[in-house]
Amino acid sequence: MIGWDIGGAHLKAAWIAPDGSVGAVRQAPCRLWEGLDRLDAAFAAILADLPPARRHAVTMTGELVDLFPDRARGVAALVAAAAGRLPGEVRFWAGEAGFLDAAAAADAAQRVASANWLATAEVVARRCGHALVVDIGSTTTDLVPVAAGRVAARGRSDRERLEAGELVYTGLTRTPVMAVADTLPWRGATVPVMAEHFATTADVHRVLGRLDETADQHPPADGGPATPEASARRLGRCIGVDLEEAPWPAWRRLAAAAAERQMQTITRAAHRVLSAALPPDGLPDGIPDDAPVVGAGVGRALAAELARRLDRPYVDVAGALGVGADHAEWAAHCAPAVAVARLLA
User: What is the mean pLDDT of the chain?
Assistant: First the structure.
């Protein structure tokens, strides 16, 4: 069996062996906003690199890209693409409605759309009981409360989750710096950040030496090299400063300030989500103070930092998904693909 997560920027897949173990995990860049041919190429690349499978479980967020006029038609297009490309039985995750065939999935677009977070949270709920699931990907952060073995999220649609603080549009690599901070400190001054797509969070974390380059599969904002020096140059452009104007420690401090702003945004959202899970207005028993943060995604090092700030234990999602050490790293990167396969199995 293969679990698939069709995103707007990446296609992720997890191959599950007949004994239920995770045998391989793959991710391919897929700039879906440029056309469905990008998805077909990503499917072909991953299928060629995995053992064959006759059952496929599919979840998605790619219906949001501006290739599609609305989510319903986006879901329909992605369902048709997956059903036409994948051999054998193909089933689509629809949250509380379970798995649907292609025809039913196209008719249930609101349930199928952007439900990948729910697959991960459902598996964690069954295995952990109480937790705050924090999946920090390249583009977004999901914060999902789990209590008493059930997903306790207040939102289901993207709009509802944005309102509840359970979906935050900040990620490890693709978020423009101008969306992270409107001002940054520089040599004792507070400088407004230019509203231009000069640099991304990949540049921020690369300058700090915290970026696993395998997690950054898209070109930088200027199409230049993915090096610390080039990243610092792009960061400087955000505040109108050239790289040659300051020594390296100044660029590290600038990147650290931007990273802290991002971390503060995630932390505020986590406090909000946890506050909604307290009695009497929320869950009957709340989420216990010792319930862990379960970290997923390429940015789960930030989830571990969040756990420290919240004074909670940290658990890597690979353990919660029952993945062995050989594939733990990439299974955590691609948690919804693993989870949706587990759920179908």
Answer: 94
